[in-house]
Amino acid sequence: MKTRSTNLRVKLPVFVVVIEVIFVALYAAFVTYDEHTDARFQTNKTNPMDNAMYKDYPFFIDIQVMIFLGFGCLLAFFRLYGFGGMVFNFLMATFAIQWAILVQGYFQFCHDGKIHLGVINLINAEFACAVVLISFGAVLGKTSPLQLLVMALLEVPVFAVTEWAVLKYLRINDSGGSILIHLFACYFGLGVTFVLYRPHLNKNHAKENTTYQSDILSVMGTLFLWVFWPSFNSALTLKGDDQHRAILHTFIGLSASTLTAFALSVMLNKNGKITMADVQNVTLAGGVTVGASVDMMISPAAAYALGMMGCTACMLGYKYLSPFLARHLKIQDQCGIHNLHGLTGLISCIAGICAILMANEEVYGPSLYDLFANRAPVKGDPKLKELQMLIPSLQPGLGRTAKEQALFQVAAMFSTIGASALGGILTGFVLKLPYLASPSDDFCFDDEPFFDVPPPLKPINTIIAEDSTA
pLDDT tens digits, residue range 116-130? Predict the structure, then answer.
């Protein structure tokens, strides 16, 4: 039964080949170069150093490290599921980026009939990929690779449509992705795991544990994510002082959450010792909690306080909320994404709303209307001409007040949570289809159903003893 239910010899190759054929056709028909990659736009007056690659590629490669090394190593903490955590992350990330280029590019295609591809498009696709990988954490160890590919196939369009609708109609400020990345990914993943609920996994599954080596590998993933998170939060901010603030605030928030995590880990451990799961996850909370206000003039002290608050909420969530959700609400969140991305994302959104309400010309000067573009005067307003004398690149805005912008932020929070949760629930029902090779309860958190697993290494004492006998 086990072999028949998880055998992918036909299913996975057929799915992948069909998808690749479709992708080749779509790329051939609709994807072309943008003006920074198309040779036809280059002349003898073109300065190669003005190419967008030089300002965008460093952020692209930093986020690549986060996606493939950071997430990959972080998810390899189960003792018998190291292959699954890292390799399925690799598989999903590669697929999700390819798919996101097409799906996100659709809205560009509707405008001019082509998808113009450059490094900035890859960065946007990486953010969509990050959404998928965060959601993956909720179902880690209890899904087949075919289920995960189908999940990515469905999640990317739901994310892209939600992102497009929120940015086009609600016009929010969300540079660090607290709403459109962290909240969306969290509640989509929770929706999926709610439908895929397995009651027997609430009874301390024998394979749902770690080893010394797997915990070290997972901490390596945490370190990759920690080091490169400033690039993640600042990649799409306005160049200059806004981006500079985003980098500083992210580092300060991460630093505060790290110190707080060690203190709380020892305090909440009945033996007064550090828990590795806290180091692997809770230390990252500050990177999320500063996200919504990361490029605003919130002050370094506020960034520090947000890091501490996010860490505290995340830690208490892991200790008390996750078990409650699993026992009473049928939400088995394997990696605690609700704590690291949901709770901290909500705190970040509230902080962002407060920062928007307090933003004024006294603090920001004329650049207020550059950062908060929707608060810029409407076309024809005499004040717009005055501001354009100071900031020539300033575009007409919507003339919103601070309170109006804050209300749109609230609307974006609730609409994103609703859309993602509904999308996750519907995706969960699709993943329950029997031919997607879901592993049985006994083989959850185990590489055996999907990998050729080598025999375990023998302890060094056993090798020495065998050599001596020989």
Answer: 999 999 999 999 999
